[in-house]
User: What shape does this take?
Amino acid sequence: MQHQEVISHLFRTESGKITTVLCKLFGIEHIEIAEDITSETFLAALETWTCKGIPESPTAWLYRVAKNRAKNYFSRNRIFTEKVARIIKAIATDKEEIEIDLSDKNITDSQLRMLFAICHPSVPREAQIGLALRILCGFGIDEIANAFLTNKETINKRLLRAKEKLRNEKVPIEFPASPEINTRLENVLTTLYLLFNEGYYSESNDNIIREDLCLEAMRLTYLLIENKQTNLPNVNALFSLMCFHSSRLEARKNDNGGIILYEDQNEILWNQELIAKGAYYLHQSSKGNQLSKYHLEANIAYWHTIKADTKEKWENILQLYNRLLQLEYSPIAALNRTFALAKANSKQEAIREAEKLQLTDNQYYYTLLGELYKDTDHNKAKENFLKALLLAKTNGDRLVIQKKMEQL
Amino acid sequence: MQEFMLIFRHEDGLKVASPEQIQVWMKQTMDWIGGIAAENKFVGSNGLPFEDARVVTTKNNKPVVTNGPFGEIKESIGGYIIVKAASLEETIEMAKGSPVLQGEGNSVEVRKIAKGDGNP
Assistant: This one.
């Protein structure tokens, strides 16, 4: 049992590295071969370690076996070898022996390149997130299905189609040339942002999966910060945003896998180290004259690290939302902006503005209206909370709304 | 959805307001635009400050640059916003909420944007 735990932990941390390094060597069209060699390696670990115990340096063991498996694959499969020989020769020049480089440097480099390949504009967004989780983060199919609240078949199909797309489009596993770095990076950041949100706002009841998604999104974003060419203001802003949000991961979870709302959180549990990190990267992000939505969202998240309700806090949040919405509209930003308006200006003004939004298929729209009416018009508040209850999709959400109704 | 431009005209661009007053107007304008953006009807906007403004005219077929007619004529343009709306009537309702109208004599001109698609 203990072996299995060690192996599944190692699978999470190492399988993505092995697959990416192999894939970078073989080319994206042979991604499945890379994945197969990785699975075989872990299968071998499970068999050997169960009989002989866990080796002293399990990672080194895995790398060694992966290298051997890859080399065996080459000698067994002439056709494949001939196909990839061209590519590999370019790297290994005149050496007969194929060198598989599992050094930290090459792992990081391969992961960065793979991140750009996966986030290629030709791949649908949902599939990009799935591929990143599978190939770069070593998530199992059932874990991805759990995170997306869907079944394994759907995820499998989605990943297969995405890989086919990468093959057909002949997407190179390489760092984009500098003229197109900014546009390609934009796409990578969107995917990382969604990956993080998938974890932070996931409807899944599995706390561990949710946190893993957030941490993996941060790890991949940090890869971009460590790389000189991609250590840009909007990347730092996104990382800052992630730090601020994840500082509340511990404080927001209850024992049943539900979410404790911001107002009800115990701020002692907020992670001060992550808040300080967020502030540091927010400062880094202000170098340059670019103002991305990540800058605005990181600033909003910064103000939320101050629990006390002050006029200054809500006025700042309101103005940040005003600007964010001009840059990019989203229903959730519109609702949050209206909440800030109630705090900064008045509930009456916020009610007038909220009635204009007419987001009638959105449960949070009615929760907001209920909140805005609760002090002045109990009937209207109740009416709106009831509508929210009907639209709520998860038990956690229903519980939150019911509690609000009881408090009326 | 059609696009409309709301053009803000100020009665007297040179009138000096106190910094506090300007701050209040700024906030009201930001909140007003934020409200339009929250309805997903915002397309773009710009303020047009009176500093660094010039007017180029011609006299005897030669261009003449002046510091602007801002002191001489009654009104000047302070900025504009482009919005999405289903109709002219809806845009007029939006315009009625503009903080610019708090200034006596100021106005908001509503104009439809020609799309060059053959439709008027």
Observations:
- The CA atoms of residues 203 and 394 of chain A lie 7 Å apart.
- The radius of gyration of chain A is 24 Å.
- The interface with chain B takes residues 315, 318-319, 321-323, 325-326, 329, 333-334, 337-338, 341, 345, 353, 356-357 of chain A (CB under 8 Å).
